[in-house]
Amino acid sequence: GDLDLITTGWNKIDGKLVTYILENEPLGTFSLASGQIDFAVAHGTIDVIDFNLDGLKDLVIAGADSVTNYAETVHSLSAKVYVKNPVNGNYNFVKHIRGARTARFVDIDHDRIPDIIASGTTEIGNADSTFSNVYLNTHTGVNDSPDPPDALTAFAVSTRAIFTWGSGSDDIDEPAGLSYNIRIGTSPGGNQLMSSSVPYNSSNVGQKLIREFNEIPHGTYYWAVQTVDGSGNISEWSQEDTLFIARLVAST
């Protein structure tokens, strides 16, 4: 469940564009992964998701793939999509989007399988060459929505409020690969303390099964949690629970 790291950009020491995929080690340090890719960009974007429904994280990198003058001058833009090989852990190139400045995963057709939206220009300086395109995923698999967490528990200790829950479940991803959103309000279904509005393929808690707050006002709070799977799909909200925080009165 430890998050790894991918970075891309201009390396001043090597004098070229580089991409590094780093694995999170048990002690919190990072080391180069065995499977690297030979494509890099400057001024770009990276997005990660399970693109082909195999439980592994895939990626799309977009930006300036040809630069000079320490990446200050851009000559061309490009995006490439890679899927992780389940056998050797390498990343296999599957799609090239010429001219893409940005590329993101999003479920355009609501089939619970990630698609891609990309924008950019195929000719730098030519306004007529700009584009914003959607690329539908042709994978034919089935991806059910994940199940929400259960075993919600919340308690207050002095000025701290602690919310915990059990793991959700999914038809593809193991529990360690799931993330969570939490909403907390001062009324049933409310969002006053923690909003339920979270972008696609994101979460406001991450993979943790706990969220802690300090010095929140006394009162009754209504809260629920939902699961986010590796393809960005969300579950229904869990059954709502409540937490009452008493007003602290100074002793005399």
Automatic annotation (TrEMBL):
It comes from marine metagenome. This is Fibronectin type-III domain-containing protein. InterPro entries: FN3_sf, Ig-like_fold, Integrin_alpha_N.
